[in-house]
Specification:
Helix content is 29%, strand content 33%. The chain is built from 5 helices and 15 strands. It is globular. InterPro entries: DUF2086, Oxoglu/Fe-dep_dioxygenase_dom. This is Prolyl 4-hydroxylase. One of its GO terms (molecular function) is metal ion binding. Belongs to the iron/ascorbate-dependent oxidoreductase family.
């Protein structure tokens, strides 16, 4: 790895380690998501955007309209991942594993997440989930993503992250991240966020625990992207579990 690239990646790791993880943990427990501002520089975001046309980096391209997922396109990286994405995936996982274990414990789900991401991927591979899931998404004007959950097999990690690589209100308008929260026997609650370029947003993959009068129960959460009104929106998605297909 070139020295300059190594220094840039170390800067990102330092920012993640320096984040207030006590506050982030409280936010994730309470609302199912948390934001870490300016983890990637403008230069790093632009370099990641420039990876999009490099076909050899990807294992699969999805036309969202074809599958009625929305309107836009996304590409799943193949292994080996670009260095920055690989390091981001491993570093953030180590901070999230204790949260995931706490969630599964209170919900009485019989699974424990190991401290290191490499060990967790071994669990995926034992179930035949061996394909990379980090992806870059591209939306043009009118593009959007329907509400969904990113599950790729029996083994899954209950948190994931996204980094918007374009700058809202400069490169695009619209294109907000939308979350819907469905509690049992209640109307859905919608939440809308617009991270800035380089911000890292952690959010729940499928559900979060909520404490009720009879103990903890699951609150189901889906996410999507509202229509892009103007311009072009790129984002990097990092899912921690691997996929079957």
């Amino acid at each position: 790895m070139p020295q300059y690239e190594q220094e840039q990646i170390q800067t990102v790791i330092d920012k993640i380690q320096a984040a207030d993880w006590e506050r982030i943990t409280e936010q994730i427990h309470h609302q199912g998501f948390a934001l870490i501002e300016q983890v990637l520089s403008t230069e790093q975001c632009e370099l990641l955007q420039q990876l999009y046309p490099q076909a050899e980096l990807y294992r699969k391209t999805v036309d969202m309209q074809r599958y009625r997922f929305g309107r836009g396109e996304y590409k799943y990286f193949t292994y080996p991942l670009p260095n920055l994405i690989e390091q981001l995936r491993h570093e953030v996982y180590s901070h999230l594993a204790p949260i995931a274990n706490a969630w599964f414990r209170v919900l009485k789900i019989a699974q424990t997440f190991p401290a290191s991401h490499a060990e967790f991927l071994q669990q995926c591979h034992q179930q035949g989930q061996v394909l990379a899931t980090p992806l870059i998404l591209k939306y043009e004007q009118g593009g959007f993503n329907t509400l969904h959950q990113d599950l790729y097999g029996e083994v899954y990690f209950p948190l994931q992250l996204v980094i918007v690589l374009s700058q809202p209100n400069r490169d695009f308008t619209g294109g907000e991240l939308v979350f819907t929260q469905q509690s049992p026997r209640a109307q859905s609650k919608a939440m809308v966020m617009q991270p800035q370029q380089g911000d890292l947003l952690i959010f729940t993959t499928q559900f979060k625990p909520e404490k009720g009068s009879q103990g903890y129960y699951r609150v189901n959460i889906k996410h999507g992207v509202s229509p892009v009104l103007h311009g072009q929106r790129y984002s990097l998605g990092i899912i921690f579990h691997d996929a079957v297909s």
